[in-house]
Design a protein that fits this description.
Helices cover 67% and strands 3% of the residues. It is mostly helical. The protein folds into 3 domains: 216 residues, no CATH class; 146 residues, no CATH class; 29 residues, no CATH class. Strand 1 and strand 2 form a beta hairpin. Helix 7 packs parallel to helix 9 and helix 11 packs across helix 15. It is globular.
Length: 405
């Protein structure tokens, strides 16, 4: 009953942040241009072996293939519903008893679910198929740290989560140290089986990445505006300030502070992170390591976008896990630190996040109506061989669909 109520509440929270996903659903970025278009052109199976972004995108490809079964005018709504269900899955998992041996009080787990849904600066991974990669990865994190279940239904759920998440993005590689550490510490056969499954999907993704990354990031070392101080300012702003102050205030203050203030903020945060790693439970330390690995990979692979991420207030999905990691550090130091001065300071920072950042960033920017239904009707009336252009969000994205005989 509690799981159902938490799931329903989670869905309401998601929709309250972005009501357009049900009132006026739109396709987003790769949703149409890659996932659906490839499935339409080449069939539902062949694209499953193709990479986008340098890695396999199995769940996104499956969703695009399933979209072929839906009447064209309903495709954006179908993608929204699928994305909603994926996004709320971690909340349902947290509300269940799976993490009770680690966090005995259910309200703690429910608060964690709220933080996940209310995190500022996350419109880039809102309710769209492309963003499901991050939500599945978060669910995989919870599955890995949870004690192994005895019920076959939960064991099947865990295996499906690791498979889908692992073959839909590169986060499985960063989660592998946590899975292997817990398998070694807990020692059960089921824990080693889960770690082995994660190792297998990580090996697949690493092989795909090894082939594709040199092609897609050949300009990495010659990117513009990639001095270390820009990286420090970026971490201070995107990882540390946005989840505490909200996007508008964080960008305003970052513009006033400059590089020295950013360096001080990063140094203080690094110190607090070191303290938290000493005080946290094993599972929490492993989650922090996962978040820091995600941060490192994002900084290296997205160096050519450092300048735009520093000056544009548009949300970037790459900061999702680093921001959650920073809030986890603050939470650990609030409730579990031995240093009495640190605890109230971290509690105050979390209070500012709840009272300032969450309300400031609650409503996602509304998406312009790209009149997908009009294009869908035009496509339905088109003859074989005729092409119709579909416009997506964000502005500038579109794809052309050619009617098959």
């Amino acid at each position: 009953m509690i799981v159902a109520l938490a799931t329903a509440a989670g869905l309401l929270l998601i929709v309250s942040r972005q009501p357009h996903v049900v009132i006026n659903p739109q396709l987003w970025a790769e949703d149409g241009k890659v996932w659906f278009l490839d499935a339409y052109r080449y069939g539902p199976l062949r694209p499953l072996l193709w990479s986008d972004g340098g890695y396999l995108n199995t769940f996104q490809r499956l969703a695009g293939a399933a979209g072929l079964l839906v009447p064209m005018p309903l495709l954006p709504l179908f993608f929204s519903v699928v994305s909603l269900l994926v996004q709320v899955l971690p909340v349902a998992f947290l509300a269940s008893n799976r993490l009770e041996p680690i966090y005995r009080r259910r309200w703690v787990r429910l608060v964690a679910g709220f933080v996940y849904l209310a995190l500022p600066g996350t419109s880039g991974i809102g309710t769209n198929i492309t963003g499901t990669e991050w939500h599945l990865a978060f669910l995989a994190c919870l599955v890995v740290i949870a004690p192994r279940p005895k019920q076959l239904s939960w064991q099947s759920f865990d295996a499906a989560t690791i498979l889908l998440s692992g073959l839909s993005g590169p986060f499985c590689v960063f989660l592998l140290p946590a899975a292997l550490t817990l398998a070694w510490r807990r020692g059960s056969r089921s824990q080693w089986s889960l770690a082995g499954l994660l190792l297998a999907v990580s090996a697949v993704q690493l092989a795909v990445l090894a082939v594709n990354l040199p092609l897609q990031h050949s300009d990495l070392l010659t990117a513009v505006h990639v001095t270390p101080i820009v990286g420090i300012m970026l971490v201070a702003l995107r990882m540390l300030m946005v989840p505490v102050l909200g996007t508008p205030l964080a960008f305003f203050l970052a513009g006033q502070g400059g590089a020295v203030v950013a360096a001080v903020i990063v140094a203080v945060a690094a110190t607090l992170t070191g303290l938290a790693l000493r005080q946290a439970r094993l599972e929490e330390r492993l989650l922090m390591v996962f978040g820091l690995l995600s941060l490192g990979a994002a900084l290296v692979l997205e160096r050519r976008h450092w300048g735009s991420m520093l000056h544009s207030t548009a949300a970037h999905r790459y900061w999702f896990f680093p921001m959650l990691t920073w809030l986890l550090v603050l939470a650990v130091l609030t409730f579990r630190t031995r240093w009495h001065l640190v605890s109230p300071v971290c509690a105050a920072i979390l209070a500012v996040s709840l009272l300032v950042a969450v309300p400031s960033d609650w409503a996602y920017p509304s998406l312009p109506n790209q009149h997908f239904q009009h294009s869908a009707t035009e496509f339905r009336l088109a003859g074989p061989g005729q092409s119709v252009k579909f416009v997506e969000n964000p502005p500038g994205w579109s794809f052309v669909l050619t009617k098959k005989p």
